[in-house]
Recover the amino acids of this structure.
């Protein structure tokens, strides 16, 4: 078991003939991801990635011809919102949008559409999701992961890698690691991920990495207090971030109230989550939590 | 992206909203003619002289002056142009006033507040109005939240007129003013949509003694990610209001924010960059900057990042922390070596490289002959760089 994606996921890559689609498509195939189709309007009928993947003009065709049920999007920001909607209306169940820089007004509409259609959207502006040894649906380096029992949720790409690396160093593998993205509007929230990990019998512990800005960590922590039975370790990046400044991610900005690192760490602790003060302690704390459970 | 008040009002006026209008000048020799033009064109003796900087709180800081006649207006204009305006948003160092806006003046009966922004939690835009205008809205929200009326807007439907009416009823306006407020709110929402704004705020929106509703101030922030759709508004950007190092960094696709400490840092990824700043602080140091070199860091970007960090004289040591995923550590190492060779090694540099091709990178650094301090893991890296900064 795992969450959202596994070896049976049939993946279509939207924007497969672009440079990002080509590079990461190749990497995903190499990892063993079941890539069944690609979509680039106007290039239908071709095949790509050493003739291993057929290209279609529309997602609908790709779904009809190959049974694709999962999508990953590598299209430029101006077209990303449309790409998500196309996948959603074609009946794709899980969509990962890697694209960085999608306008927030587009995302507000997209979010409403995917919610209405029952599509699980991850991202945008995220590293994607990986179920170890089964399906890499994203841009993360697969080789740093190890199969095991910890679920990882994070807003940030490289900080996810850092956490995975620390877990591996203390002997803990992962079930699924998911980077949800750091934009103001994203498809899948931390609480959504917690619900999935709590329900997944293979996941025995959860690492949740947040940052300044927004209320998502707090919503997740408050839910975890009453609903998560598994040991959890949390970390919040941005303790030293000055208020009012956007720290890289469009959503990482302290605008007052509960969205500072300090406030989030306090609420995580109050909710019974083990909080790492230092990013370097994530692995050790998770190990201790697993031994004490 | 932020725009000035006068630019915000231009955007509003284009949508048909009634704004307090005027003219701008940026050279003191133009002050006289600008004031006279405003007096003539708006048929008024009294005017308002307003400093144009991006920070809020201008009135309290002495940057907005009512001027009953020409002489007073000229005196205020001379004082405000070139002043260093300190407000709660500029911080202690303040902001130099390079542009002054001279506007018509109104007899104010009531001051209201109106704003639209994104409610992240609900995933919808929220339109807020309050009968308590002209003051800090945060204060109203904290002390008398019942005085703020809100409507949430369905993104697929847009704002409906019943919602605009609800907002206008919330202000308790007289009949004619009510009608114009409803119209203004609809226009304000259309503007917010049309320009991909992240916030539009009018504080105050006024009711004049002769019953008109007028936009007296305009705060407009835009989504940087959507500027490609608005080339006309992108041209309004005023680089004088931004940190020159941050502007330069952006040209190289680097995300740089200057801070007050002495430990420079260069990291790939925003989350890891924040976490690196935090661990420097925990180790007893103070970060000099936030710098995210992004997901495609090449030797060239590393070199430019290095140069920008070192242009800050406070920097006593630098930490390079890269977790290679797509970014290959060997390329980063080459960039570091190249940068050090070209720019010289003025301060100690601690390097921590992990992930893709980390071993090759360590070999490159070891064989390069440049005296870099290698580190393993973030704790080790932070401790080493703080120690280096303290002993510098």
């Amino acid at each position: 078991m795992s969450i959202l994606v596994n070896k049976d996921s049939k993946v279509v890559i939207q924007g497969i003939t672009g440079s990002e689609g080509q590079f990461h498509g190749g990497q995903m195939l190499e990892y063993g991801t079941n890539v069944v189709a690609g979509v680039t309007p106007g290039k239908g009928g071709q095949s790509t990635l050493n003739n291993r993947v057929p290209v279609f003009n529309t997602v609908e065709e790709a779904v009809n011809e190959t049974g694709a049920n999962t999508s990953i999007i590598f299209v430029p920001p101006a077209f990303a919102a449309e790409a998500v909607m196309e996948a959603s209306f074609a009946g794709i169940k899980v969509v990962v949008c890697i694209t960085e820089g999608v306008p927030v007004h587009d995302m507000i509409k997209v979010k409403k559409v995917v919610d209405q259609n029952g599509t699980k959207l991850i991202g945008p502006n995220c590293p994607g999701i990986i179920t170890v040894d089964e399906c890499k649906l994203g841009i993360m380096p697969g080789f740093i992961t190890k199969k095991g029992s910890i679920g990882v949720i994070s807003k940030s790409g490289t900080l996810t890698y850092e956490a995975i690396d620390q877990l591996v160093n203390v002997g803990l593998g992962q079930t699924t690691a998911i980077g949800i993205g750091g934009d103001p509007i994203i498809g899948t929230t931390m609480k959504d991920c917690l619900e999935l990990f709590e329900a997944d019998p293979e996941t025995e512990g959860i690492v949740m990495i947040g940052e300044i800005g927004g209320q998502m960590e707090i919503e997740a922590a408050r839910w975890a207090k009453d609903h998560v039975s598994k040991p959890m370790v949390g970390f919040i990046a941005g303790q030293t971030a000055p208020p009012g400044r956007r720290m890289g991610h469009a959503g990482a900005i302290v605008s007052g109230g509960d969205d500072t690192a300090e406030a989030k760490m306090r609420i995580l602790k109050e909710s019974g989550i083990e909080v790492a003060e230092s990013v370097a302690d994530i692995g050790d704390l998770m190990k201790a939590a697993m031994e004490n459970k | 992206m932020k725009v000035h008040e006068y630019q915000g009002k231009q955007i509003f006026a284009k949508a048909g909203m009634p704004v307090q209008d005027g003219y701008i000048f940026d050279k003191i020799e133009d002050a006289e003619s600008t004031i006279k033009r405003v007096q003539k064109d708006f048929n008024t003796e009294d005017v308002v002289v307003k400093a144009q900087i991006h920070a809020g709180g201008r009135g309290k800081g002495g940057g907005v002056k009512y001027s009953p006649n020409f002489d007073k207006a000229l005196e205020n204009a001379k004082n405000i142009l070139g002043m260093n305006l300190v407000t709660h948003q500029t911080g202690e160092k303040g902001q130099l006033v390079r542009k002054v806006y001279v506007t018509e003046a109104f007899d104010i009966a009531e001051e209201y507040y109106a704003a639209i922004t994104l409610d992240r939690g609900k995933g919808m835009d929220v339109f807020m109005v309050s009968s308590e205008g002209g003051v800090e809205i945060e204060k109203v929200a904290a002390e008398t939240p019942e005085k703020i009326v809100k409507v949430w807007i369905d993104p697929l439907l847009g704002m409906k007129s019943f919602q605009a009416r609800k907002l206008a009823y919330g202000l308790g306006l007289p009949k004619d003013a009510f009608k114009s407020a409803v119209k203004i709110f609809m226009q304000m929402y259309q503007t917010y949509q049309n320009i991909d704004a992240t916030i539009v705020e009018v504080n105050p929106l006024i009711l004049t003694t002769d019953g008109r509703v007028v936009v007296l101030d305009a705060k407009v922030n835009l989504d940087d990610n959507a500027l490609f759709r608005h080339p006309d508004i992108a041209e309004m950007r005023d680089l004088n209001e931004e940190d020159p190092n941050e502007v330069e960094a952006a040209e190289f696709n680097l995300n740089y924010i200057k801070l007050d400490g002495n430990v420079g840092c260069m990291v790939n990824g925003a989350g890891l960059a924040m976490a690196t700043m935090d661990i420097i602080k925990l180790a007893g140091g103070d970060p000099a900057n936030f710098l995210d070199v992004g997901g495609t860091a090449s030797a060239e970007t590393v070199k430019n990042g290095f140069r920008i960090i070192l242009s800050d004289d406070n920097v006593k040591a630098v930490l390079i922390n890269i977790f290679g995923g797509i970014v290959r550590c060997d390329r980063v190492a080459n960039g570091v070596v190249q940068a050090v060779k070209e720019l010289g090694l003025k301060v100690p540099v601690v390097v921590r490289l992990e992930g893709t091709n980390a071993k090759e990178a360590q070999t490159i650094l070891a064989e390069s002959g440049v005296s870099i301090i290698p580190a393993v893991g973030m704790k080790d890296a932070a401790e080493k760089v703080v120690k280096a900064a303290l002993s510098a």
